[in-house]
Amino acid sequence: MSVTTEIEDAEATTRERVRNLIIELGPVTAAELAAELELTSAAIRRHLAVLERSGHVTVREDTSTTPRGRGRPAKRYIATPAAHPQAGAAYAEMAVRALTELGEKVGPEAIEAFAQERSDDLKARYQAKVDAAGADLDARAAALSEALSEDGYAASSRPLGGFAVQLCQGHCPVQQIAAQFPQLCEAETRAFADLLGVHVQRLATLAGGEHVCTTHIPVTIPTPGKGMSTHQ
């Protein structure tokens, strides 16, 4: 292998790491990517330029109201649908056809039953890991995020001001199927609520065209006249 080929392979590997981190953490800035990957900002920007040209990432302007001083708002990068693995496209098409036929022959309740069975399996696999995190909802959400990532969902959890946790999934193995059968997303949301022991709200989904699946998990509820109280 020539030196040039080795360099190109190393560049491609690093670029894949950048892409995967954007899938997991996006919207994310170049500076945040550089810190996570321990690379220079210049190196990150070089990889981002290639990923933008290939259509794998796009820019979302920072709309936060936090003062940043003078200058333009920071660019935050998100993954496009093209960035997600497509190896299962043939399987997804076959699954959509099978579920469509199932719904036509048996009825919509059969689709609901399938979605519920899938979510029950998810709960069975994740329950012990989530319970091992204890009663704290932040910790339970982090454990759920870790379990999802181990299954390829590129998940992360982020505290929101001490009042809630935002659970993000940057990849969905059944995205193309769920786009046709949202029952899968609905059942998964119920599974998250059961695992965490609180009502959760799905704010966005990859299947619905967003760049990430987002679930809002409340960890506190307001008590009139007494500030906030923990809801556990």
From TrEMBL:
Coiled coil: none annotated. Signal peptide: none annotated. Gene3D superfamilies: Winged helix-like DNA-binding domain superfamily/Winged helix DNA-binding domain. This is ArsR family transcriptional regulator.
